[in-house]
Amino acid sequence: MERLQKYLARCGVASRRKAEELIVAGLVAVNGEVVRELGVKVDPERDRVTVAGRPISLVSEGIYLMLNKPPGYITGNRDPRGRKTVLSLLPKGFPRVFPVGRLDYNTTGLLLLTNDGDLAYALTHPKYQIEKVYQALVRGVPADDALNLLRQGVVLEDGPTLPATVDIIKVKAGNAILKLGLREGRNRQVRRMCAAVGHPVLKLERIAIGPLSLGDLALGQYRRLTGAELKALQKQIGQAR
Ligand code: URA
Which of 25, 55, 73, 220 is most buried per CB count within 10 Å? Predict the structure, then answer.
C-alpha cells in the first residue's frame, strides 16, 4: 500500500506537493469515489485511480526536458483566462510531463519539465536549497548598499530572504543587468527583492538550476537532458538530502 499523493507523483501526474493540492481540490478518485483526505493509501495493483476523470498508471520511463520559456506563457497546466501554457510548446501527443516550479508569465528562460514527481519535489522543496540563477535587467544601477542588502537578505512581506549571490554584470543606458543566485523560490521573489531595494525588474530570465545551464537553447525550444546532466542533478539532490 502506498500513500495516494506518492502514487500520483510516481504516475507522473505532478510533484507530491501539487498532487496533495489535486486531492484536496477533489480531482482525484479511487475506485470511483472522490478522495479529499491526504492520509489515504492505495494498492497500485488493485485500485483504480483517476485524476479529473482520467485513469492514471505508473510511468515506465522518466522524461526530463529543459525548455527556454518565452514571455507570454503561463507555467500552469491550464489557464482560466485562456492564456497560452508552456505545455503547448510540446508536440501534440507528447507523453504527459509537468513543469517543475514556476516562472512568471513574462519571465523567460530555463524551465524543467518532467514526469518524475520525486525529482520535482526535491527541486521545489525549500529544504533542498538547490540554487537557481537569474539574469535581471533592473531600472537604475544599484549602489553597493543595495547590492549588499540583496545579498544578505531583504525583508519581504513573507519574511526575510536567504543570503543570495548578486553581481552587476553590465550597465546599459543607465540600467543594470544583475546576476542573482537564490536558494529559495518564493512567488515573484526576484521581482519583489529588486523592487524592495528601489530597482524594479524590467526583464527577467532564469539561466541555471543547480548544475543545469540554459546555454544557447532558443526561446520556445526544448531538449531532453543528457545523461550527464541528469546524473549531476540527482547527485546534487542526493547531497542535499
Ligand atoms: N522570481 C521572479 O520574480 N519571477 C520568476 O519568474 C522567477 C523568480
Answer: 73
If one residue of 74, 100, 104 were mutated to test the ligand 1 pocket, choosing by the most ligand atoms within 8 A of its CB, it would be 104
Q: In terms of C-beta distances under 8 Å and separation of at least 24 residues, what long-range contacts does 226-230 make, across chains too?
A: 229/64, 230/64
CATH number at 131-209: 3.30.70.1560
Residue 204 Cβ < 6 Å to ligand 1? yes
pLDDT higher than threshold 80 for residue 189:
yes
Task: Name the class of domain 64-126+222-236.
Answer: alpha beta
- Domains 64-126+222-236 and 131-209 equal at CATH topology level: yes
Coil, strand, or helix at residue 101? coil
Topology adopted by domain 2-55: 3.10.290
Q: Tell me which amino acid residue 47 is.
A: D
Average per-residue pLDDT for the chain:
93
Considering the chain, what percentage of its residues have pLDDT values greater than 90? 77
